[in-house]
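Minutes, methods subgroup
Present: GH (chair), OT, SY

1. OT presented the first of two proteins processed in the latest run. Sequence and structure tokens recorded below as shown on screen.
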Amino acid sequence: MTPPSSTSSPSTAAPARTAGGAAFVGVGPGDPGLLTLRAAELIAAADVVVLDGARPGAARAAAQRHAGPDAEVVETTAADGGAPLPLAGRAKLVTAPAKAGRRVVRLFEGDAASTPALAEELAACRRAGVRFEVVPGVSVATAVPLYAGVPTTTSRAADVHAVDAALGEGPVDAVSGVPGTVVLTGTADELVGAAKALVVSGRSGDQDVAVTSRGTTTAQRTAVATLASLADVLAAEGDALPEPLVAVVGPGTAKREKLAWFENRPLFGWRVLVPRTQQQSGTAVELLAAAGAVSEVVPTIAVEPPRTPHQMEKAVRGLVTGRYEWVGFTSANAVTAVREKFREYGLDARAFSGLKVAAVGGVTAQALRDWGIEPDLVPSGEQSASGLLAEWPPYDEVLDPIDRVFLPRADIATESLVEGLQAIGWEVDDVTAYRTVRAAPPPAPVRDAIKAGAFDAVLFTSSSTVRNLVGIAGKPHPATVVACIGPATCATAEELGLRVDVRAEEPSIAALVDALAAHGAQLRAAAEEAGEPVLRPSERRTGARRRSR
């Protein structure tokens, strides 16, 4: 077993708090992975976070993701949520708390340097005697085209000109006669006006334009037109391309069909239901996002302490005093339960020194590694209680000085592992480490979405998640792709009348998401081969096939 690490936390930890001041931070175009490390550090350390408007966006998402629970989030709009405050009002939101000794972070969408308000607000801080720093962000004008598969520089266009179309025809006229790529940002009407100005100034009406909405997010959508047809295309798209928009005019637009990597990810735009607790769903959410999907976590079980703590307390004392040869963990929840009990007693992972540790599978093993413990036994085959038992060595009175195993488990765990260990010579302390209870039903909109087929897929990671989801929210719609992590979970889903579409090759979250992504890629390839539009399962509800009975 690997001893726990004594090294300090990584450099992404929040910086130490100092006297009040202000940081003006660009949060990038929308993809949370494009936020810089410095930006994340400052937001995490902030006492006050100031952002523009009440609408969802990259700034609000960054604040929700990184700001501490005690941070105050302030909007630069009037009290009634209407028009933006004038400069004096915006500046006061930053300078007043900073002068009072609080750490203020002012967030801007994209790159702070491309925001007209930045210079004015920096000048206000200077006049107020507030120290400040500026953290650049990834620019909308560079990131969004690349996420749309449109390189802004090519052998035919070495220069890039970014123009805010809201500023009128003047800035557009200034770049119209200059060779290179023009990147426009603005509303549909503003882009149409800019396109007309470019044509009047000499650009060909046949020149291609790629227009992207919600760039770098999983809701990204791109339409292609020409300068002459842009008005008609945007009118036809309507609400399908919500504003603000980013348009690219240049030779790179012709390369989009071959280079559109982001929107061609296997699960791009899929809405996936993850019936797990928030604490357990992190890996699944990250892997799904990497495949292009949007996750919605719906807890189906709640984990609670055992009704009486006596068993666990006795077992932990025995672990410390040398009562056991092995400790067997059959879930990540069991690791958490033991870890919390250790915390109560002021113990840490060093108490496992000299013990052999077993984990039922990869997720449980990772929970142990996160604690600083490297398990001695993880099944190489089926990652289940039976798979663990198949590889557990029998008790040998010569090699094993102690014949007892500590098995912290859920109150509803089956007895097969205990009986199997006893059959190969081990004495087992089968201890209830935690109780699982059915979670409360999700909100009505989520239940309706599940039944109506608004989710493209659902990930089932255990038999209990299947039973509990059906119990608290009903069966998923027949069009929803059902993905299961192992044979027992698949069997439970089929017993409840669900057709299992995706089965993981091995019982791990990574394998399950990989299998779902492969299924999504097959659906995309089949649609393209048939010359049909690529539709998500939720968009194909009318043709949904029946479940097996």
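2. SY then presented the second protein from the same run.
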Amino acid sequence: MLAKLILISIFTATFSSDVYLSPVLRDAIDKYLSQKLRQFEEKRNEDVKRLTDRVKELEESHSMDMQIVTKRLQDAEDQLSDDARLFDKRMQEMKMHHAKELQAFSQRLQEMEAFVKDTGVISTPLEDKNNTEDIAILSNDIVHLSSREEGSRSISMSNRALGFKREHADRTLTKPSPKRDVVFEKENIIHLPFDSDIGVRLPGLVSPDRTQRVVPPENGVAFHALLQADVVNPTKGHIIQFQNIKTNIGNTYHPTTGVFTCPRSGIYVFSWSLRINHGPGHGINSEIVHNGVAFGYSAVGSGGSDDVFSESSATVSVQLVQGDEVWVRINSLYVGTNILSVYSMFTGFLVHENSS
């Protein structure tokens, strides 16, 4: 009712300036207006406070985002630095490995030259003369050559070839048979005066189709390594470095990086096993990697037990070419899981070398 009277008074005062307002009505109008002004002021202060709080929240959120971005950039720089150091280590190991291969190759060449020099293999064609003594000397040389090869190669001749007659030798020298074995020795041809059905195998001169398919022991590739110490709280993508080497034939496994480098193309078999600490909620998924691509997996978990260790193992086979790399890394894990050095190992070996 009072509000209506005030409105009527205001409209009346607007159209007629001569209207008289009593003191009581004037006080009521002033009081109402003052109350409205206070409400407007309080509302404005609330809006200002709300806006200030919102700006403060935005500033704090922006600050947190900047800290996260800064930390991620630092982590990326650290990872890049670690990758650069790992790359340098691998390059140095590859250089050392190549130097050893060159040294072994040079030594092998020297041994082959000394072998040829000691055995006195004929390097010039046999002259077409009636000289049966040359045939006997050549036969003896073949027998001696076969006996020098550690029992891995042999000469198979028929009794007819070993006991050929002088007439047959003379006829062979004067009129060579169209069926004869040809052996290449330093770009010179040796015509063996025997029929083609005589099986002759000289060391290092075997035809490709007679090459032994199983890898001989002297050309084997194999390694076996254990963990040197426990891997405490690793992260995803961590390459497991098995540094306690037990076997490393061919020096193809690098303990500082945990990477195997294929020296020769062929079929390889790899096996790895991991053991983790006991406790609830512990587990690791590992994988074996070929040039950065996983091709085998293994999982181990504690099963919620507080006093039982858990371990797992896996075996794979893969076709590799020279220069390929293979290693074991962590795919995923629970926080607080450690890899124990006991019963954790990495093994690999060549089972079939590709024929050239």
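Chair's summary of item 2: The first helix runs from residue 2 to 15.
Next meeting: continue with the remaining queue.
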